[in-house]
Specification:
The protein is built from three helices and three strands; from the N terminus they run αααβββ. It is mainly alpha-helical. The protein has a three-stranded antiparallel sheet with strand order 2-1-3, with no helix packed on it. The longest helix has about 35 residues. The N and C termini lie far apart (about 80 Å).
Length: about 200
């Protein structure tokens, strides 16, 4: 005989697991999308199928391992205590930053800013030899397209952390990359005087 309250509880738990799994699968889709972005069109579909299939197999395997680990007596309690400790540490950090908020100066216009330098080294280009300085960051969250042959470097102008993300249109090849010292006299770029 079927125990309906218990069956409803089991189905509710299963539904919660499925919803969590769907929510967490979004990062897999992003990673697979980034991985196949640079592939030729004929290889994209097999790569997507392989990536999603592999992610699904790994998720099922890790779910089975987690299920076995949950059967270990005391492991759930240990995990709960560890999670409680992490929450306590995070709460302390939030409380500390909140208490220090009055003493910390407010963000300035230079907060989280980058000084990005471009130098055109393409002999066939009409802008060959020219330099350009771009200031980007939190207040100017720009995307900058840098063509091959244009040297580029950056300097962090902010006191706090800044973020610069490189996205390329092909796989990394060390042969495509060159290094120029920041103070190379051929570039004749003064990082301090160019700072606005």
């Amino acid at each position: 005989m079927i125990n309906f309250p218990e069956a409803v509880q089991d189905l509710t738990s299963l539904g919660q697991v499925i919803l969590i799994d769907i929510a967490l699968a979004g990062d897999n889709a992003v990673v697979v999308g980034l991985a196949v972005a640079g592939l030729p069109d004929k290889h994209k579909r097999p790569a997507i199928i392989l990536g999603i299939g592999g992610a699904t197999a790994i998720r099922i395997a890790l779910g089975a391992v987690a299920l076995q680990l949950l059967a270990v007596i005391g492991l759930l309690l240990a995990g709960g205590l560890l999670l409680l400790w992490v929450c306590w540490k995070m709460g302390r950090e939030l409380r500390r930053s909140h208490l220090l908020h009055a003493a910390v100066p407010a963000k300035t216009l230079g907060a989280a800013m980058l000084q990005i330098v471009l130098a055109d080294l393409r002999p066939e280009s009409p802008t060959w030899g020219r330099r350009n300085t771009i200031y980007a960051g939190n207040l100017r969250p720009w995307q900058i397209l840098i063509p091959p042959g244009v040297a580029h470097g950056y300097k962090v102008l902010s006191v706090g952390p800044s973020m610069l993300i490189y996205a390329t249109d092909r796989f990394y090849n060390p042969a495509d990359e060159g290094r120029i010292p920041h103070n190379d006299p051929k570039l004749n770029y003064d990082w301090e005087l160019q700072h606005k």
